[in-house]
Specification:
The structure is a homohexamer of 163-residue chains. Chain A has 163 residues and is α+β, with helices and mostly antiparallel strands. The first copy, chain A, contains four helices and five strands.
Chain lengths: 163, 163, 163, 163, 163, 163
């Protein structure tokens, strides 16, 4: 069943065997965006200038979730992350907040899911903390920007985005 | 700090006090979409006809994640969910898979975050299980479709989507 | 699809909707047995008389696991347990240790899985703590002894056992 | 206190010190069986032919639980598993389902508990998903089939079974 | 075995049976203090004025840990918290940071452990984030300030403290 | 922002990058003390002589919590511990119980937080199991005794304590 390494020959879910892979430094960077009303963004911007607690909470939630990826995604391997970083950019002209998550490990398999889980959870936390002001936020363009290391070679995103 | 119930008067993160709220039936429905190459969709479609393991795994991952929402999103309350449902629709003409997650509780606060976490994790699991074939998938249009119950009244999404 | 409440009309996994069920006191009792060599049992017996740490650890592991049932078994609801008890009996003539776990809640669904998870984890912990002396232990006869409360009525086990 | 590596000289629970052990490839395979009424087995068989969701859910639950072994069994070390596989066989003449779980790591200690936890949780999930049809199922013959690698040498089960 | 509700008549660990208790509003407040060098406090103070990330992270960690109390403390019941608050006060003249955690539930048992776990984890997070500057910090005076609600009546701390 | 390795140049929380560090054997030992009334200590002492379940439960809770440190403390790395030990000493003349936790790993970063979390959780478990007899217990003097290994060199505590 070529191309789907998570399914065995009978189509059953199976974890990918990485026993014989060599550990190496692997990095992945993911991106996502949350659209919010201008009123909401203004308030986040102001808080960010003063206390930054919404983005601080979202950053911590994203970092913690990246470490939990193997518990959330059924067939992910346990990986000991050596670095996790979350960055936000409030983009007024697009009426939203961009988030990137960069994850590094020195392991036997890639960390793209960890980066994607980090971004998703950071955006969901922003949603949670602002939802009392506006439930019409939309999370969009969540994708893998790039990954490096490992046998399968480096990757740069070549798909289509919205924003 | 009107409109941001998760921040106290000093702008510090704080859980919302729901001690005096009455429990009632609350439902929330969230939606998300993952764009994938036609080649990938064809294979998912075939597997779905035979064994369905990719969508079965994604459904279970979404249900389990919805129950874990209070562990992922820092200021979410612990809520005992009474129902969680995940539905998928492979949409060939949009080249992707739509996912909805419906969550119900009989509790003191809403379950919109649980529905959004369920959708996000289901889509991430699809990404994980198909990524060996294509890393250019994009998760998009993740939003709250509707919610019912509770003091703040019913909600229907009125924002803008991409697909 | 009568008889399988965890599958929807399409055969897909689904959590059972308990939104409209009334909370009531529900109790379940499960049983399991681990066969071990006499040499092992003698040592456990002696330790039990002095310090009891193997059975103390197994008791605590079983109680903690019962509380985690909703995280282990994909379609289990989150239930707040009001009582969990684990009892052991070293049975020299059967060359093993019997374990029962009794769980109570005041909730909308039964706690039979919690009792079964409690017994299984207690037995697995005994295995773990004694395996350096003997890897030939066998866990057997794990079943639901009885359950009380709820709409479906009381249940007493009527199947066949080995020991 | 020879033979019980999990107890210190005072009989207190203690984790085994593996600091100075060399990492190596270690594999363990565990087995378990669940007896169920013929009516239940017929329905599982039919669903398995069509959708397979009961066994798909049980397979995923077993894989996820194997990764969580160090959280369930108090004195187990954290181990990064490199492979986990779950197989089922519906055995009509024995009126039940056999399950094996094979786990591999490249680490400092064995993975027999991970294999046993994987099997136990997979069987418990089958129980959960079929219990609305029959509560008289029995889980039996849960044991370690074999293990390979590590200083203590290979092991093959030599005990007695029921089925 | 009067006075020790967590031990059964044989001295074995047992969860307290709260099945027949009535739910009511219960509040607990705990306190703790971390001593740190003046150099460290100065820097925390400055950061707090600007970004507050150390205390923001500690606040979130304390809130999340309070929700996890039933997973950390073996015989604690699962309780759905309705409110958790963490407050810090940098006390220059005592060369340290005071932390209080207030927890509320509407449940069948008290939340004193949740308040104590919240304080402890908040202080440990401060330690973690400042330890690169000074490993000589000491956490002290961790105790229950007061609790209200429930059958056993209100409590105010009457013990001795250090600071 | 010298001295605070957990904050990036903008003062935002960030995990420390350990990708390029060499794994080595690292050990940390932490200490804590819980003051309790003499009546309580007498009973713990008696139970300890007979069954020891309070200290057995606290020991297991501390070991399990040490393994969970990366889930509790937001910016801690996931570390695979190779050894965890918890020791208690009932000190009648100080009217309390001293606890030490020693943790070892063969990894890229130190285990001082793991040792501190182990001690704190062990003391909190003692509090939980004895609180029905006395809520005036105080946990104090929780600090790092020493750490060895790693690039930053060995450490011995040089601060001030109470008891």
């Amino acid at each position: 069943m070529s191309g789907f390494s998570h399914l065995d020959d009978c189509g059953n879910a199976a974890i990918v065997d990485i026993t014989d892979k060599e550990p190496s430094v692997r990095t992945a960077e993911a991106y996502g965006f949350i659209r919010a009303s201008e009123a909401v963004l203004d308030q986040i911007g102001q808080i960010s200038n003063k206390k930054g607690d919404i983005l601080a909470a979202a950053r911590i939630a994203g970092i913690m979730a990246a470490k939990h990826t193997w518990e959330l995604i059924p067939l992910c391997h346990q990986i000991m992350l050596t670095n996790v970083g979350i960055r936000f950019e409030v983009i007024q002209e697009k009426s939203g907040i961009a988030c990137t998550c960069t994850v590094t490990c020195n392991g036997k398999t890639g960390v793209e899911m960890e980066a994607l889980v980090g971004v998703s959870t950071a955006l969901l936390t922003i949603y949670d903390m602002c939802k009392s002001a506006d439930h019409n936020m939309v999370m969009t363009d969540i994708h893998l920007l790039s990954k490096k290391g490992g046998r399968s070679g480096d990757f740069c995103f070549k798909g289509d985005l919205t924003e």
